[in-house]
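Hi everyone,

Forwarding the result from last night's run.
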Amino acid sequence: METSEGKSNGATGPAEAVTERPQTVVRDGAIHRVCPLDLSPLPPVPVTSPDEVREAVERSRRAARVWSSQPHAERVAALKRAAKTMLERRSEILELVKREAGKLDVDALFTEALGPLDAVGGWARVTSRAVRRKVRLNPISFPKKRARIDLVPRGVVGIIAPWNYPVAGLYRSLIPALMTGNGVVLKPSEFTPKSSQWLADMLATELPEGLVQVVHGAGDVGQALLEAGIDACVFTGSCATGVKVRVRCAELGIPASVEMGGNDPAIVLADCDLDRTLAGITHWALHNAGQACGAVELVYVDQRIADTFVKRIGDAWRALRVGDGDFAEVDVSPLTTRPQLELVERHVADAVERGATVVCGGRALGVGLFYAPTVLDHCTDEMLVVKDETFGPVLAIVRVDGAADAIKRVNASRYGLGASIWTKDTARAERLAERLDVGVVDVNNHAMTGAIPDLPWSGVRDTGFGIANSELSLTTFCRPKSLLIDENAQPEPFWMPFDASTYELGDILADAQIARIGRAWRLPILLQKRMKRIKSFFGR
């Protein structure tokens, strides 16, 4: 996933049939954007000043003091009401993400609009068992004592969000942050400010005034947010910016969860169900035009079935609808930003120059930012489409000599978010999954855990640092507080003042732990002696 700084790294020139109009410009105190469908201008959005960012953090902090005092069940109920409002008004977000991000209605419906109530319900389940947890104590070592762990909200969470999922991409950070009692200041991507603003506005209908604040702008506004006194940060974006965010948060003592991208492979074994495999890889490679950190970008296919796989996926992708015409009849949406289109072109050109075969696609289409679904065969490790994140409707196929070869290549990648294994032998797939050095593995599916609050979403290497989803992610939003309650009426036998009986008691207890019980008969005598000594010392 990428934030507003984009992914242009020395990209080649603009795509054919695409004008020189800039994709986004921050000037004169406002964000100026164009629609990816037809490059028509969108209404400008005022930029938030540094002083206004600080004020937003303080407003959220004041509201959070009230919000955090409410019982967890009441916070959950308020968020459920807001989620129902979102579902009732889903046509609004469908139109917004179509204009700002170029999303297909059906894609936006399933990814952006359909999920809020499920997300709230999932996070209610996760947080309810985590915000107050009893701890079982050994009654011999800790007699008449009970303990628990409370998760205490940190205060105000700053969220620097990406453009590829301007609503759904926030569910796994915004909802748990709020549900655990925090305020939130959201900095959306400047490419999709209104879509993320819509989510905040929907939440505001049921939450305390000021609890969720939105600040707009480019990277300088994100930096201002880090400096404005937030108590935790969630960032999703490029590797270069993510490293800077992590370093600055460390300097400021701010807990940070940083997700910086992926280059997910699918491992296709010779015994796969080819029909399901082709359909699944197509969906996970092309939904949102491949603009997802968990999209399938690489296929490591067993060379024994490679020819058949390549032919069939090429035939299918040629039949997909893209570009001009009725948008309701389109299968693949445009790229959201022009720099992203240019990056796709650069990667494809590099692959062709290095010997890859274009099976289908390989060119821009229409008047907007459409790019034909592209399959590249005979790809090799030195190609950009293999070693870097393309973030577009491009599938790089690498022919491998079985599962071991594929796993070796996956583990050598600079990224380590997710991977999938496609085979009829699920028992073997489980064994292979244990050897993959990534954060998420799916068998006969891909990236499904991203929408499941119970399961962690994380990666290794250049994918980032921190965890989204599951109880394991909550330390970003909360700090633990331990509570122990002692119901003993007697002093502890190891308390002062010390004498020879104190040491003897400890020595016997140490022996007991290693099954030396010869002196255990002395324990009642020593305990009685210790109680008498302590009470007499303190005047009884």
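The first helix runs from residue 50 to 68.

Cheers,
N.
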